[in-house]
Amino acid sequence: MISQKSDRHPKLKVPARHGREFAVLGLECSEFRNLAEQFSSRYPRVNILVLDALHEGESFIPEAKLYREQGNILATGPSVEELERIFSAEADIRLVNGNHYPAKSQLIFTNSGKAGSVKRRKEQINNPVAAVTMDTDWKSFTKSTEIQVEHDIPVFDSMDQMFDWLVSQVRTPVVKALVLAGGKSERMGQDKVSMDIHGRPQWLHVAETLGDAGLEVFISSRQDRKQDFAPFQVISDRLADMGPYGAIISAFMFNPDTAWLVVATDMPAIDIDLINTTINRRNPKFMATAYRKPDGKVEPLFAIYEPEAYSSMLQGLSTGISCPGKWLKSARVNWLEPTNESAFTNLNTPEDLEQWLKVHQPK
């Protein structure tokens, strides 16, 4: 529920993080509104949902506006029901006024006049994806605001360049998450999806971590276990006894236009930083984005499979390929080198679990 008014910034609970959601930081509120208007004018066929807040004395009132070709929709608090209805609307992009609200990803403007404001919000700048140069260069701005950027991001010289980049994100297949929870766990001797490692079943820990990273999450499992994974939607295996390879193909049968971030349930070290880094370094021009260790070993069960992979994986069946790792080695892959190989630790046996708990759980 959206609070109608508060002493400072209204608190919003958006029903679900959008796959292309960006908080804009480094602009005055009036500049943010102008940016949204300019973006809509430049690309009228892109549906843009804008989250803002109107200043009313010392308080703020939530405002949402959906820019669309067939007519814009504007809603302002205290009409809470109307705001929530708009947040449920289908939008290509969400632009969020970062002066008021956090978002999944961040667009930073290097405006020295707003450096103090950006610095105060550095804790919520956890996934900067692009920047626009104003009166300060990007390197100096990150130093003065103490923003942590773990990899190179595009830095633009103009608004128009940034608008074009945003639209390129719209035209890129959205990433959704697929948690593999259909294995028989024969080597473990117990159901791996139900292992309690983080104070909750392992499948739920993985699913909620992916959800916290802003992804829509699906569970891959057998039809007879569908009720075990509520409230998440289950994609049932359509290819019997084919393990992860069949699960990935089944996900493409369910939605062939999605890029699937496939994650094994038995990876206890997967965290939001790794998820965000992988998505930000993804290259949709390849069939997949995956990690390959210096010794040549690949990690097929924490990888992004693009829609183009679907037909190739089906074709692989006719040539005897039924293993995701083997398929990756034959495909066009955007290979990433892991910075922390322990992040991909699998728990396959009781000994693996015992060792993990000995090292990672508090004494």
Give a structural overview.
There is one protein chain. With 363 residues, this protein is α/β, with parallel strands linked by helices. It contains eleven helices and 15 strands. The strands form two sheets. An eight-stranded mixed sheet has the order 4-3-2-5-1-6-7-8, sandwiched between helices. Strands 11-10-9-12-14-13-15 form a seven-stranded mixed sheet. β6 (105-110), α3 (115-120) and β7 form a beta-alpha-beta unit. The protein is globular and about 60 Å long. Residues 1-18 have low confidence and may be disordered.
Please tag this protein with its features.
single chain; alpha/beta; 11 helices
Query: In whole angstroms, how far apart are the ends?
Result: 40 Å
| Gross morphology | globular
- Which spans have pLDDT < 50 for at least 5 consecutive residues? 1-18
How many β strands by DSSP? 15
What is the N-to-C order of secondary-structure elements (H for helix, E for strand)?
EHEEEHEEHEHEHEHEEHEHEEHHEH
State the share of residues found in helices, binned by percent.
Answer: 25-40%
| Largest sheet: number of strands, sense, barrel closure | 8 strands, mixed
Strand content: 15-25%
How many separate helices?
11
* Strands ordered across the widest β-sheet: 4-3-2-5-1-6-7-8
Write down the Rg. Answer: 22 Å
Mean pLDDT figure: 84
Structural class: alpha/beta
